[in-house]
Amino acid sequence: MKIAFDEHIPPTMVKVFQTFASDKQLLKLSADLVLEKAQTYYPKPSDPDYLRRNDVPWIRRFSKAGGKVIVSGNTLMKVNSHERLALVEEGMIVLFFENAWNQWGYFHKCSLLLHWWPMIVKQLKTAKPSSFWHIPATWPKTESAKLRSVPNHDLKLEKIERQKADQPRIRAERAAKRQKEQEADDLFKAADRRESSQNEAR
Length: 202
What we know:
This protein is an alpha/beta fold. The protein contains six helices and six strands; from the N terminus they run βααβαβαβαββα. The N and C termini lie far apart (about 95 Å).
């Protein structure tokens, strides 16, 4: 299974894990993992699929080369609509680090990934294509710890669609409220008129 580490993962860290991948302990977890740098799949400016500051071309190239998994330090990839769509369309299993991870030092980052590696490999065996996962910024004490599943769809768009779907109900509730207020207002006006007419009659 091909795993690409994106440009937000330090290159030396990728080298460390490529070395670890051939270690007996890691081979026991899974012998079919191939760890690569995402940069290997970056198009050059002269290539027809080149897009400046855009991850879509390399995601598609990686997929065509048999890539299945991306480890990313860029959580914005989840909210960037065209990049998220490419990840979903290509059936990528994506492992994101938490935002806090980007503020850490090199050894801190390496140790977290190494600590989670057995759980990551276990998750990859059952994870569905186009699924997104967060690697928690914690060091669990047992290997029964799990990655956190996160949505692979546009949460902002989902919120907008929910709000649109709620508009008829909200309009009806407002209209009913206005109707009640009007009825109450009419009752007060009617009572005032009665009181006025009674006063005049005296």
